[in-house]
Every structure is written in C-alpha cells, then in structure tokens.
Amino acid sequence: MTILMITLAFIGGAVLSIQAAINGQLANKVGVFRSAFLTFALGALVTGLLIFFFAPKQAVTLVDVPKWQLLGALCGVPYIVIMVLAVQRIGAAVATVAVIFGQLAMSMIIDNFGWLGNEAIPFSPTRLGAVACLGIALYFIYSGNKTAAAPAKMALKRR
C-alpha cells in the first residue's frame, strides 16, 4: 500500500507540473486570474461530479467540522496564482522545485511540532539533509536556467 501511495503522489506531482505549464501559457493569453478561475471552476465541476457519483456517505458534513479545517481550501488559491505567475517568468522546472522545496520545508515543520492535528515526527539529520539537498538542487536548476538562457539571448540579438 505504501508503494501505491508513493506512486500516486508521484503521479499527482507530475500532473501539477503539467497543469503549471499549461496554466502559464493560458495566462499569457487570457490573464493570470482568468486562468486560475478556470482551474477552480473546472476542478469544482469535476469534483462535484465525483462526489455525486462515487463518494460514500459520511457521518460528518462540511457544516459539522471545526471551521479552521475549512481554511485549507483557501490555500489552493495562492498556489495556483503564484504558479501561473512564476512559470511565465522562471519556467516550470524552477517553479515546481521551488514549490516542492517550500512544501517539504513546511511539512517538516508541521511534522516536527505536530501542528494541525498531525502526529509529531521530529527533525532528524537525514530529514534535514534531504531539505538541504533539495535546496541545492533548486540552486543548480535555477543556475542552469540562467546559463541556458544566455546563448539563446545572444542568438536572438544576432538576428
């Protein structure tokens, strides 16, 4: 089951990168907020259909849960808007690695302190090393973008 969940998470990450690249192109044509709106509108429609046809009955409804738990839904808005803006300027790879770096850093803080009702999983040298490695990867991917962009700019100037 663990391998399946890791595989599904990997696929989810791949789909997010595809979404970011597509939304970046869409935003160039229709604007950042319209692109984000389309993402949420279609997402709401598809999710609504999935709930209607496939979701089992739950003992607790959205009205019954602690209200702070509903705030998680708002976290998607800045993510989509930021990614649409970032992909246009720094590319899908740098934007995605930066998002993963932010996710990993914050999730480790949440784990360490057991925030938001999660079980506490303390920092360890290997977990901190993983964050450091991802930070280094982000640096090299970003540096690679600048290095690759320089010859392309020179070629455009020659035309």
UniProtKB/TrEMBL annotation:
Write down the species: Serratia ficaria
- Please indicate which superkingdom the organism of origin belongs to: Bacteria
List the PANTHER family: INNER MEMBRANE PROTEIN YDCZ
Which lineage ranks, top first, belong to the organism behind this chain?
Bacteria, Pseudomonadati, Pseudomonadota, Gammaproteobacteria, Enterobacterales
Which keywords does this Swiss-Prot/TrEMBL entry list? Membrane, Transmembrane, Transmembrane helix
> What is the name of this protein?
Uncharacterized protein conserved in bacteria
Q: Which GO terms describe its cellular component?
A: plasma membrane
Kindly list the residue ranges recorded as spanning the membrane.
36-56, 68-87, 93-116, 128-144
